[in-house]
Amino acid sequence: MIGFIGSVFSPWYAWSGRRDPADHCCMNVATYGPGGRFAMTDRGRQALRQSSDTLRIGPSSMRWHNGVLSIELDEKGALPRLGRIKGRVTITPLAVTGVEMPLTPDGAHIWRPFGPSAKIDVCLDAEGWQWQGDGYFDANFGTRALEQDFDSWSWARFPTKGGAACFYQAQRVDGTSLRAGVRFDGQGIAQVIEVPKARLGRSLWGLERWTWCDTGSDPERVMGLLDAPFYDRSMVRTRIDGNLVTGVHETLYLTRFRSRVIKAMLAVRVPRRAGWKVS
């Protein structure tokens, strides 16, 4: 689940010239496995409501209260799997960090891992869509388009004993690169770490993928989650600090996202709903 103000992967936002982020907001949600659906409706500013602890976008909302993030969802799945994604998700961080990491030297893009380790409780209105487990809560902020500053990046988050490990690898448009690894303990205290990279193999759309692992280990893609011409999301099993862990891995190629053809294809999966009647 991602709450967007200025939906960075919306073709409608790009075509608008990105002049008004509030007029292109979105509550993105994806479920996986049998009956899995994907929703990423681009909505206008009439659908947006904000306060110090609440983000409401159309029929869905996120609310922070007493150390818990409560998410109420009521979204419609995009083609080819139509259907409603409705219910509640609660995320309870084990600790809230004070970490902010600039992704560019001028701070135009910031990564903010609020809750690297969390408990999650999912209760959606469909058979088998109720479970509890390991969760994660972060945010990204930017003042420029991603494709303006980056050609590609990879990101991963793995649960570890008593905490989590997060990794970034990015190639910037100006030829510089970013490589960062951070380990968080159960209290949210961060420590910079160095972990070698390894090839993960190409995606169905030919995207080259890299992940992180101990020297000599062999990471494995255990489940494909989302495979698009410019983006891949997977579950990856790897070995970090001698421990076998499974986490979420993402690869993004902004060189492809810049394509007009790709944006036209995206419009099918990202419908535009400009109006919203406030109840």
Termini Cα gap: 24 Å
Low-confidence runs: none
Let me know the largest β-sheet: 8 strands, antiparallel
* Proportion in helices: under 10%
Helix and strand succession? EHEEEEEEEEEEEHEEEEEEEEEHHE
How does the overall form come out from the CA principal axes? globular
**What class, by secondary structure content?**
mainly beta
Radius of gyration: 18 Å
* Total DSSP helices: 4
* Average pLDDT, all residues: 94
* Number of DSSP E strands: 22
Percent of residues in beta strands?
over 45%
Description:
The chain is mainly beta and 279 residues long. 8% of the residues lie in helices and 52% in strands. The protein has 4 helices and 22 strands. The strands form 5 sheets. Strands 5, 6, 7, 8, 9, 10, 11 and 12 form an 8-stranded antiparallel beta sheet that branches. A 7-stranded antiparallel beta sheet has the order 16-15-14-13-21-20-19. It has a 3-stranded antiparallel beta sheet with strand order 1-2-3, with no helix packed on it. A hairpin with a 7-residue loop joins strand 2 and strand 3. The longest helix has 10 residues. The relative contact order is 0.15.
Topology:
Blueprint: E1 2-5, H1 11-15, E2 25-30, E3 38-39, E4 42-43, E5 48-50, E6 54-57, E7 60-65, E8 68-76, E9 84-93, E10 101-102, E11 109-124, E12 130-142, H2 146-149, E13 150-160, E14 163-172, E15 177-184, E16 190-192, E17 197-199, E18 210-212, E19 220-227, E20 231-240, E21 243-253, H3 254-257, H4 260-269, E22 272-273
Parallel strand pairs: 4-22
Antiparallel strand pairs: 1-2, 2-3, 5-6, 6-7, 7-8, 8-9, 9-11, 10-11, 11-12, 13-14, 13-21, 14-15, 15-16, 17-18, 19-20, 20-21
